[in-house]
Amino acid sequence: MRRPLQARAAAISLVLSVMGLAGWWLLAADSPMPGSAQTPGDGNARAQSSLQGTPLAGGRPGAGAKADFFARQRAASAAAADDPLLVDGLRNTLEALLLEAGDSSDPEALKQRLAALVGKHFAPGLATRALALAERYVDYRVALGRLRLPKDPTDPHALREAMQARHAVRLQFFDGPEYDALFAREAELDRYTLALLEIARNPAMTAEQRAQALRDADNELPAARRAERAEATAHMEAAAQSAAFNAQNTDPYTRHAARSAQYGEPAAHALAQLDREEQHWQQRLDQYTQARAQQGEGPALDRLRIQLFSADEQQRIDAALALRKLQGS
Q1: Per-residue pLDDT tens for 122-167?
Q2: Across residues 311-324, what is the average pLDDT?
Q3: What distance in Å separates the CA atoms of residue 18 and residue 152, rounded to the nearest whole number?
């Protein structure tokens, strides 16, 4: 039952990329901590102060990372590469830790809960450092919530300013190696996405100039990111094809023939299995939705929820139903 959930998460991310919103989504994904009300005009000024060398109270400047988000950033140091804490996926681990700690309008209370949970997410030898990093991550997200977000995230100038302001906040709380582990990967893709947006929105460019600018933007990506982008493009094509099949109620035989010709027999079989799992997931969501509409919340619905969905799936039901509602509107 896990695979369709992973496929859906990947598909949502890919759709965002297709829409040209990858960079903005990464900015919005750093959602502010509860209780950190957004104050228009206040956040960007505070972020600019850090560019001038004045960190927020409780923060620390990010030594080793450049203040200009759009300057070529340094590569991670060899020492950081050998640090067992500063590994790929660190940010996801911190987010999982915060998720388990639960919502709180009081960052200090949240930090106390983190202290009791950090050992579940980090090895004993890393727990002390990880907790200190997680506490600063809480402060970072509170500060981030004070930033003024652009009214139009497709405006390249506004998006460039927002990315720079977010970068400034990050430098207030994390040093160079920490910044690399937490944000460098996404930052590369953010800069690339913005470059594509600026190229697309530049009316002065000829077709030839635009093509050359796109090639230059591709070349600015590290080889690993280019490989990831090529893989994502292939997945996007498959996801778009599946969406078209679903919209047209294409029969399984026709789906398999088209996929086999385009991707090969093994991939066609794998995609057919995903179709079946997705259909099963949607059927269970239908059954759950109908039961909730008929009987409302209560012990009986809770029992049905446990019966129909795995523990992992239960965490995603509300999001799936919200997505349905959004698509229906």
Answers
A1: 999 999 999 999 999 999 999 988 888 788 877 889 989 999 999 9
A2: 83
A3: 18
Percent of the chain residues past pLDDT 70, beyond the cut: 75
Query: 150 CB contacts (<8 Å, ≥6 apart)?
Result: 158, 159, 161, 162
Categorize the per-residue pLDDT at 40 as very low, low, confident or very high, splitting at 50, 70 and 90.
Answer: very low
Q: What values do phi and psi take at 158, rounded to 5?
A: -65, -40
Q: Quick one: angle between helices 42-51 and 127-144, nearest 10?
A: 130
**CA separation for the pair 265, 244 (Å, rounded):** 20
| CA atoms within 13 Å, Cβ hemisphere of 193 | 25
This prediction's pTM: 0.58
What the block records as the tokens of 66 is 């450049």
Contact 239, 15 (CB under 8 A): yes
The tokens for 159 are 């998006």
Residue 7: name the closest of 278, 227, 241, 250 by CA: 278
Closest CA to 142 of 105, 97, 190, 183: 105
With a cut of 50, say whether residue 8 has pLDDT above it.
Answer: no
Instruction: Kindly state the DSSP code that residue 21 receives in the 8-state scheme.
Output: -
CA 114, CA 208: separation in Å to the nearest integer?
54
